[in-house]
Amino acid sequence: MKLIFCPKCYDVLRLIPRMRFCDCKQSSGIVEKDGLNSKMFGEAVPLWFSNESFIEALYSRPTIGMGNRFDAFIIAYSCPTINSGNVDNYKISNDENP
Ligand SMILES: [Zn+2]
């Protein structure tokens, strides 16, 4: 699953098929209609969680002590499935072409 991190307010948000904004509104992102590509705006830093290892860690949550680690990483500056842009232009474009 793709997420964004805002370096200004430290929010972490999962990207979904509707625009989401961090608490300070300086980072935002959306999953495109194809379900594969995403757009992010502002200060957003893209993150990736391995669904498989996250679910495995979630369901093996211990009663006490440290939980299990799961795979996650910061996505590179250049990624073929993530585009950056101006959020105002994106809203205008989507309003004109629903
Ligand atoms: Zn923020």
Number of domains: 1
Hetero groups = zinc ion
Radius of gyration: 15 Å
Give the DSSP E fraction (strand runs of 2 or more residues). Answer: 25-35%
Low confidence ranges: none
Termini separation: 25 Å
Outline, from the CA principal axes?
elongated
Number of E-state strands: 8
Enumerate how many helices there are, as a single number. Answer: 2
Structural class of the secondary structure composition? alpha+beta
Largest sheet: 4 strands, antiparallel
How do the helices and strands follow one another from N- to C-terminus? EEEEEEHEEH
**Portion of residues in helices?**
10-25%
Write the topology of this structure.
Blueprint: E1 2-5, E2 12-14, E3 20-21, E4 27-31, E5 38-42, E6 45-49, H1 51-59, E7 72-74, E8 82-85, H2 87-96
Parallel strand pairs: 5-8
Antiparallel strand pairs: 1-2, 1-6, 3-4, 4-5, 6-7
Zinc ion binds next to loops.
